[in-house]
Specification:
The chain is α+β, with helices and mostly antiparallel strands and about 900 residues long. It folds into six domains: about 70 residues, 2-Layer Sandwich (Phenylalanyl-tRNA Synthetase, Chain B, domain 1), CATH 3.30.56.10; about 130 residues, Nucleic acid-binding proteins (OB fold (Dihydrolipoamide Acetyltransferase, E2P), Beta Barrel); about 200 residues, Phenylalanyl-tRNA Synthetase, Chain B, domain 3, CATH 3.50.40; about 80 residues, 2-Layer Sandwich (Phenylalanyl-tRNA Synthetase, Chain B, domain 1); about 220 residues, BirA Bifunctional Protein, domain 2; about 90 residues, Alpha-Beta Plaits. It is about 25% helix and about 25% strand. The strands form 13 sheets. The chain has a seven-stranded mixed sheet, with helices on both faces. Strand 17 and strand 18 form a beta hairpin. Helix 6 packs across helix 7, helix 11 crosses helix 13 and helix 21 packs antiparallel against helix 22. The termini are far apart.
Amino acid sequence: MPYVPLTWLAEHTQVPAGTTAAQLAAALVKVGLEEERIVEPSVTGPLVVGRVLSVLKEEQTNGKTINYCRVDVGPEHNDAPGTGKEPAEVPSRGIICGAHNFTEGDHVVVALPGAVLPGPFPIASRKTYGHLSDGMICSARELGLGEDHSGIIVLEELLGADHVPAVGTDALALLGLAAEVLEINVTPDRGYCFAMRGVAREYSHSTGAAFTDPALPENLPCTLPAPTADGFAVEVDDAAPLNGAAGCDRFVTRVVRGVDPAAPTPAWMKERLTQAGMRPISLAVDVTNYVMLDLGQPLHAYDLGLVSAPIIVRRARAGERLTTLDDVSRALDPEDLLITDSPDGARGSRVLGLAGVMGGASTEVGPATTDVLVESAHFDPVTVARTARRHRLPSEAAKRFERGVDTALQAVAAQRVVDLLVDHGGGSADPAVSDLDATTAPAPIDFDPAEASRLVGVDYPREQVLGILREIGCTVTANADGDRTLAADGADDALPTVTVTPPTWRPDLTGPAHLVEEVARLAGYDAIPSVLPAAPAGRGLTADQRRRRDVARALAEHGLTQVLSYPFIGDVHDRMGLPADDRRRRALRLVNPLADDAPALRTSLLDTLLDTARRNVSRGTSELAVFEIGLVTRPDGTTAAAAPGVDRRPTDAEIAGLLAGVPAQPRHVAGVLAGQRVPDGVWGPGRPSDWADAVEAARVAARTVGVDLAVRAGDVAPWHPGRCAELVLGSGAGKQVVGHAGELHPNACAALELPARAAAFELDLDAVLAAAAGEPEQVAPVSTFPLAKEDVALVVDADVPAAEVLAAVREGAGELAEEVRLFDVYTGDQLGEGKKSLAFALRLRAADRTLTAEETAAIRESIVRTAGARVGAVLRS
């Protein structure tokens, strides 16, 4: 993200003295530039200008020569003679320094005790090499001003002998280290704000401050030279452009000769590059980076002696490679746009760089470069974006080109580079200028100013709309003929539409809606009222949505916690122990999965819920009860269909084919229980979760929507074959298995790293809700007559499911049974081998009378008779 130093911004617009980064952020957010962060100064504490009074060289036993220096750091910081720290004839401080590029009388930068340098590296007084070092004489790298660590900063060399400030002066302000820097977040359509020029323009829009565009030729210190016939030759050979746009539509070259390769980058430029997050390298490179950050035009500097004319811009050929400036050899793609030259007359045979992304190592500016070729070009945003992503090179140049660069900027930016190289490198500008220009002017937009009020819902006066468009750089002309619109007050006098031509730095403005967005942005988003739309009748939750929420609430009240898991799976079916022919193994595989180990979509909720349970158990959750409601994907029966074209509406047959290719996605509810269901307490020992809790949780979900599930023995992975229940809807021929519940198989528990005897359930919620649809359930009136209680114990074969016996008891009890509950299961020698006793508690009540003893006895006999006929039960004696 771009960094905005306030002192740099103030060169292009009026920034009031004392403005803080926070105030700048508040101003920019009004026009849509959000604050990313405020970068605090990298150096804090006392940092002052010092003058070296004496240098005592001392040879150490390790072979290293150190300097013990007495440094005058100003009357506020010097040690007076006789203070006992170190002997001194005049007020000064003693400092140990290992560098040797300075001498007595030089002015240096001194970090005093209490200062903190980048790292962080706190400075304190310490005894070393037999002396007390009471501070540190700093190099550029130690202050975060560059990578030069060969010697300390000598201010006479950095600033010039006539500009060295007095001893004791605050060096933080002198070197620009005390300034806050604002980092902003720029949306993709506002690429011009990747330059100080664009940010200054937006600050001007926000505050009304005067703005001077540094990219206008009239604001340059000299006149832009016209192209000459002898300019460095450039050709564009792009026969197969992407998206109908040529890869390069403008290419400017300039030459600067006689540049001193040892000329240092000016201190102010280093400071700004560092504040902007860039590392100073050399004068030629730093100048191109500085102009890019200032104007927004990426540039590149070549060693002229290493480049052979003509430069040819073309697409890559099969098998070509390039070693870029980061010393990585890259295989090139035929879509890559290249900068090439013509050594030995072989036209375009040598690759110099990836256009708009990064240059090559073979022609980079080096320590011996004296003649510099400056490239300032405009490249297709799509081409640059694809190349940068293909080679994983998100360079500063690519960030700007892929968002759109001003097509009128190239010659101005090249001139700025030339001027800086001449001024600070001692070079001379070559009169030869090349400007290959095939750019087109921005397309004009027919615009009705009343559209702003219609789309935004705010009454924008016509003159305000047109004024804002002119303010952002658009050319606005009234249409004398053509479409016209009535005045806002409905008067007969018609107001003409206008033709708006966007500025070259705003390639994002291509239609009327974009212009309306600019009006809303600069008029103020805060001026747009928040109006809550009226909710039309009948648009609330559907019946199924309400029932799903009821199910979630009921399970939460039952003691389970709702979770959400990602629907992507890997080898979970193997760990669950599903048979090879199980239909749940037929999963839809993703072409571009988020993770290589989870390339398919789940076919049941347990596929992912069990892993959620494992993760919670591994992190110390010993009592676990979780559930999830979500979609599963069942690709059975789907058929692939060809995608229809976008030039027309698809036919009914094509739509049907597309729908046939969409897999079924039923909604399920599932849960996992492990550990103690009832904790130990003063009431006695608790009990662990078991298969019955899983069955009951599934029945709670169904009962919540008015559906009763029948339970019968089942055998489905990943459940234990002897402790698995099928959950059944309906009766007779219409029975439908809608889920399973019970204890998980021991092998599955081990493979899934779950506690032994963990239980789970899964239910097809869509099927349950379909059974619940229809007429609302009628609630029976509450009877005020007394309750009659009966217990019945029935003996049946051991393999008879308790659910079948319970159903027979309910049938025999008839309408007078308010509740029937199984409360005991007994097996033993008294019953005989292969038998079990099931005891049921009955609550009987009539709506219109008190039941008599004869009536309850009759109900008891009916239960025994019905159960005997249905399941072979006999009354336990």
